[in-house]
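> call design_seq(struct)
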């Protein structure tokens, strides 16, 4: 189940201080700042509070990058495939950090579905903002196309009057996709663990068959 609920809520973040490898830090900065819009966004986030960007390890950054909200640190690994794009995503996460902290603190004021949907909405907002900036950086010729990692998911392609929407072109489609992978149930699990632990076992039992079907479907 955890395999399919696998996207951590915690956002890895900081303002570029990649520890003991200045060349690694400087290279990422240099590539990121090629795009004026990305540079302006960095400044906007920095104006709200200092942050640092540091080198992370594979254990703490399973996807290549992570945001540590409380200390406003962004971690990026040397093996992260598109480091400037990962940095942009974590900056977009950091932009919501204050709201995320408040939402998580008040999680038990919501029911499980409200909480899970709220988490997904924050994730969607982060992802769509990162795409919006990356798309302009690519269109302006400052970044290579592969750094807009969500381009196909948000794409709206029109021929004459016939338009095809990407899988994440709107939030409801995004939410349906996340439900289908078990990601939204991961948020519900967190809610039950902290807000209604006495109901957790029954909830797990009621959903086990669904999760097993997800695993089987992904392996077929």
């Amino acid at each position: 189940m955890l395999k399919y609920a696998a996207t951590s809520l915690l956002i890895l973040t900081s303002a570029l201080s990649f520890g003991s490898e200045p060349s690694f830090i400087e290279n990422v900065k240099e590539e990121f700042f090629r795009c004026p819009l990305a540079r302006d966004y960095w400044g906007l986030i920095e104006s709200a509070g200092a942050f640092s960007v540091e080198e992370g390890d594979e254990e703490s950054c399973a996807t290549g990058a992570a945001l540590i909200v409380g200390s406003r640190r962004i971690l990026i690994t040397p093996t992260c495939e598109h480091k400037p794009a990962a940095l942009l995503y974590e900056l977009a996460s950091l932009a919501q950090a204050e709201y995320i902290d408040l939402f998580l603190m008040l999680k038990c004021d919501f029911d499980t579905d409200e909480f899970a949907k709220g988490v997904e909405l924050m994730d969607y907002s982060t992802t769509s903002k990162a795409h919006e900036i990356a798309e302009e950086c690519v269109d302006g010729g400052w970044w290579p196309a592969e750094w807009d990692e969500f381009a196909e998911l948000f794409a709206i392609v029109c021929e004459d009057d016939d338009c095809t929407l990407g899988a994440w072109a709107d939030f409801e489609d995004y939410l349906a996709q996340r439900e289908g992978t078990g990601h939204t149930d991961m948020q519900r699990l967190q809610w039950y663990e902290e807000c209604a632990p006495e109901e957790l076992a029954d909830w797990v039992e009621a959903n086990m068959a669904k999760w097993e079907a997800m695993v089987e479907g992904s392996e077929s």
